[in-house]
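Incident log, structure service

09:12 report received: a user says their structure output differs between two submissions of the same chain.
09:20 pulled the input from the user's history:
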Amino acid sequence: MQILSIRGWASAAALACGVALAVVAGAQQTNRISITTGGTGGVYYPLGGGMANVLSKYVPGMTATAEVTGGSVDNLRLLNAGKSEVAFSMADAGWDAYQGHDKFKDNKVGVRTLLVLYPNKTHVVTVEGSGINKLSDLRGKRVSTGSPGSGTEILAFRILEAAGIDGKKDIKQERLGAAESVNAIKDRKIDAFFWSGGVPTAAVTDLAATPGIKMKLIDHDEVVDAMNKQYGPLYVKSVIPAGAYPGQDKPNAELDVWNILVTSDKTSDQMAYTLVKTLMEKKPELVAVHAEAKNIDLKTQAGNSPIPFHPGAKKYLAEQGVKVD
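09:34 re-ran on a clean worker, output below:
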């Protein structure tokens, strides 16, 4: 009888141990998060890496990693498939996903805003000798509209459309990310490319600093009104200031669209609260990674994301005196 009791106790202990291990494993799994970013030549990836480091360092039990992706569209699809927990997105791509429009017409995404980050500045990039001085000069040229699955690609087609150019018929389209576009334009394989990102973008700086090449940024703010009429008030006339890139001797009239950090509507309120609180409180460490993090500010949270904020994010912002929808 005593032997049976010992055996019973051992079985119970083993069962309890197994349950405890399962709980620990579950907790570890819950706190392992993926942050989907963009290509290595842009701002999303290094800034996402900085966020992953901050969260892993300061949130007990959390391991965060930054993943290279095609950009906003890919990120929103991965979020919807449960393959990432946090994603970078341009506001217009996020709005399409939330509404179930355009590339998301068959796959609406339950996306919620965590933070408004910084304004993306739209680059229409070419070089001296290309014969391109304005948007209409892109007709018949070899143009990269951004990598597949990127917010840049959505934006490029909307700009071309507003300028009366058919992106499928009137240009010789390539679909390259920022770094790949720079290499292609250096090798004269393309004449121009679109890029939507922070300033400075490392790949564009590389092109501007290349000996023997004079980079040009094409003005395009004239299309903003038509784009907002078609797609909603998502775009703002702005400038890339002179000197933002080597040899850039005049300001570039362009359009801005905000970048946002998003999560799923299935993310717990506590998790969303913790993510936002940690990233805001450790902002100086993000600024050390990329200067665009300076633009992550409480003052810009209200009114700059078309997508509703996650309740956990709203709670933190309310504590800071910021009311968001």
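09:41 both user submissions now match this output. Likely a transient worker issue. Closing.
09:42 reviewer note: Residues 86 and 263 are 5 Å apart (CA to CA). The first helix runs from residue 2 to 30.
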